[in-house]
Design brief:
This protein has strands spanning 3-7, 10-12, 18-25, 34-39, 45-51, 57-59, 67-72, 77-82, 91-97, 100-101, 105-109. It is mainly beta and 111 residues long.
Length: 111
Amino acid sequence: EVQLVESGGGLVQPGGSLRLSCAASGFTFSGSDMSWARQAPGKGFEWISSCYSDGNTYYADSMKGRFTISRDNAKNTVYLQMNSLEPEDTAVYYCVTGRYWGQGTQVTVSS
């Protein structure tokens, strides 16, 4: 059974940073492309970034320079480092692989 468990969300002030983690199990993590997506209140899902199994990384234009995706194949974990957070980054953040989504972790950016 594929499981994706996100953690690391919370409340942060504007300009702050958070690192999200996604612990994966039930599939061959090292051979899988991993992504992060988010859904802001009242809005649709938005792709953030992907880290392919070959190590290549891709970002939505609005996230470039602020967000960094990485993976640790030994730990079956993918990370999303988020810096210079803005209130507009408030959303539920999801870890995604193929058609599988985690349960999400809430990130709230507010003073």
